[in-house]
Design goal:
Radius of gyration of chain A: 23 Å
CATH superfamily of the largest domain in chain A: Type I PLP-dependent aspartate aminotransferase-like (Major domain)
Number of helices of chain A: 15
Distance between the termini of chain A: 50 Å
CATH architecture of the largest domain in chain A: 3-Layer(aba) Sandwich
Strand order of the largest sheet of chain A: 4-11-10-9-8-5-6-7
Strand content of chain A: 5-15%
Structural class of chain A: alpha/beta
Number of strands of chain A: 16
Oligomer: homodimer
Largest sheet of chain A: 8 strands, mixed
Bound molecules: pyridoxal-5'-phosphate
Amino acid sequence: MKLYEELAESLRQRIEQGFYAGGDRMPSIRTLVREHGVSVTTAQEAYRQLEDAGLVESRPKSGYFARVRCSTPELPRVGRPVRRPIEVSKWEDVLNMLGAETPSKVFSLGHAMPDFTGPTLKPLLKLWSMQARRSDMRGLEYDSLKGTEELRTQVARLGNHSGCQLDPDELIITTGCQEALFCALRAVTQPGDVVAVDSPCFYGAMQAIKANDLRVMEIPTHAETGLSIEALELALEQWPIKAVLVTPTCNNPLGYTMPESRKRDLLLLAQRFDIAIIEDDIYGDLAYAWPRPRAIKAFDTDGRVLLCSSFSKTLAPGLRLGWIAPGRYRTEVIHNKFVSTAASSTLSQLAVAQFIAEGGYERHLRKMRAQYQRNRDLMVNWLEQHFPAGVRISFPQGGYLLWLEFASEVDCVELNRELSDTQFRIAPGVLFSASGKYRNCMRLNFVNGLDRQTEEALLTLAALIDQRYAKAG
Amino acid sequence: MKLYEELAESLRQRIEQGFYAGGDRMPSIRTLVREHGVSVTTAQEAYRQLEDAGLVESRPKSGYFARVRCSTPELPRVGRPVRRPIEVSKWEDVLNMLGAETPSKVFSLGHAMPDFTGPTLKPLLKLWSMQARRSDMRGLEYDSLKGTEELRTQVARLGNHSGCQLDPDELIITTGCQEALFCALRAVTQPGDVVAVDSPCFYGAMQAIKANDLRVMEIPTHAETGLSIEALELALEQWPIKAVLVTPTCNNPLGYTMPESRKRDLLLLAQRFDIAIIEDDIYGDLAYAWPRPRAIKAFDTDGRVLLCSSFSKTLAPGLRLGWIAPGRYRTEVIHNKFVSTAASSTLSQLAVAQFIAEGGYERHLRKMRAQYQRNRDLMVNWLEQHFPAGVRISFPQGGYLLWLEFASEVDCVELNRELSDTQFRIAPGVLFSASGKYRNCMRLNFVNGLDRQTEEALLTLAALIDQRYAKAG
Ligand SMILES: Cc1ncc(COP(=O)(O)O)c(C=O)c1O
Ligand SMILES: Cc1ncc(COP(=O)(O)O)c(C=O)c1O
């Protein structure tokens, strides 16, 4: 064990023993140097380790603090989705949530827009602006079908963080992760096929399933360990499933990360039944633990995993930049990419590639991981205090979304309707089910922690629940 | 008749009588004022009219010149495509042409990239750069599903030029015209259906047909008047066709614009057989005549026309901005747009909207129309002189693409293979057919007129044809 690791370890023990409570100031670098007889670099390195592990946070000009920690809350129950393949419905609800047809600004507690207002994203905007003024005007050209070499090279390099060996020449840049999922689905299925998904499941993926005339088999998930391998195995034995689509790392909406052993089990199962895995890793780089958890793709030996991701959650969705590492399905994916959009925006690719190459991406991630983890803790604590008794709360390991389960009488679709007099909206659980389940659940973002508007919205919601379901919980 | 119209008319007659040959200097504004006793404004307005009609061109600091005109060349023959619905093939050839897998820079005579190097596009880059630095960072947000209001408003306004009454709220912004076509096709068909197309037809549209498991019915076209209404009628009587996909204005690859009466006939036919029309208008604003020809959509009374277009040819393809006016198919189109890419790039929409609002788009168009028309004339003249006898050449009414038909023995796929030692490539006609027809044809761009590289490439090609097909022609 290196010296800084020993130091980090002893500090970690003291935190876990309650020596430092959440929010307490940790010893300064100077104190550590004096008391432990180590160098400044060693002390700093120790704190960096603890920061990566999510145990301390640094506050500018004030030093290190033990995190506001909260123990795992009462978790949502494992869902009981329909036990056979069904067609996806709910498009009307999605359309409603997206606010596509409502011109007025509403404040959505459930939307999934990251925070891009911080200083660490400013350099990206500057690069974007500069790229627009390149004298060769490359931003105006048709991009190559698979994307610019600059960005593919950087994405391949970032793949190391998730344990993936990506070849820039195999990668295909897409217009967001949505296009990656869409092309992946089309590459591995025919109309009428069945696709298994983790349930609850991102509505964009399910609507893509619907649009391609596929049926969905919803597999229950555990709020901490994700997709039930056992349930999937049963389903595979019973139904002619062609692919499984999962978000195993920093899941949307539950926030769990599947343990590595379960990721491996999932892969083994896919091999045994010879099906493809569409792995949505869009929130993976926002895992609070660093180095981040490995992707299923990291263990893929026969190219059956199609890894889909984007910069929409880590940087900004307006970029519309995603990618896919398509494994053995490259031919099909590239045809689908061509016919759906021909090429992606050249200029934003060049800007993002340069931003990553200059270290801006990793700097930004470090900051956002810390911010979102802090916000999670604040939010979970707050919800436990202010929300109706009996509420169950997921405990995300990354990202900025969590899942709330209320008593079974609570109807979130109805609540949303009642909120329509206010400017507030929620993302009801039904969006995440093919079959209208999860009515008593909702997705909640904690991007901005408990700012005034969020707190006001949450209090309005809590009051509404109390009033309408007085006996509930 | 207004004074400037009278003056324009008398000048027009003198040009048509050969008084001024192509390339001759026209009387200066001062001369007109003196000789005709009109005001400077009137003289200028007269020239502006003649310019819009494509009869004169202005050269900076040297005044007005009669255009290099050439009479209609020997036109390509009407094709005889397969007389039944078939599946689309040729993806390998398209992939090859797109150069997706070849890293080295090749010079393609057939590609369809517009000229974006001129000064009239500079303001767009500046606006783009400025938008990236907006303090509200709107460029980073998820755009609304249907696109920014700013851009939809401008696109609706531009619709007036093509005679279309577009409602900004009905329009949907897409990631290029390719996505518009893709969503349109998916909105009006089910797998297995038949779609009629004008043949030769843009390969991107045909590959989208292939990807959606549709079959294609190729309808012959005339090099001047476009799609054969008669042949389409016969096909409609015989086959269960669901939609017709056409590029009736400044067609790619032939360059024709269907006369308005034929556009109306096409619409009547679609009404009679109750099918949808997918109208690709991507080159429409580059018609040499101004005001530009009206779109079929202009006559649409029952919402059966899905108008698809983009800024890829008029401004720059790297923007990846298109749109669709989906008529009665809006619900289906918006679902397809959501599942394929969720949203389009926000920042470029804002930049383009501002560019249009400030008059930059129309300024740029005026310049490009004149440039492309001049280049057409130069190119057609040159081809008639230097190309093998018997070559047939289309005579585009807009855009920057033409179609060459060689003697039937000439095999353009083979020529491309033989060119592989050089840096030059052509776009063989087979790309534009579902069934491998048009081997003796190719598409040629005249974006840059006869610059040195283009002339060198064309001479290489002509020599190759002469050598290989000595007896041909
Ligand atoms: C799990 C998941 N996958 C994919 C997407 C779509 O991402 P993008 O905006 O990059 O298309 C989202 C966006 O909300 C998501 O949450
Ligand atoms: C006739 C036609 N339609 C559609 C497209 C696709 O356009 P975009 O680049 O805007 O997706 C092209 C591009 O070459 C085209 O020529």
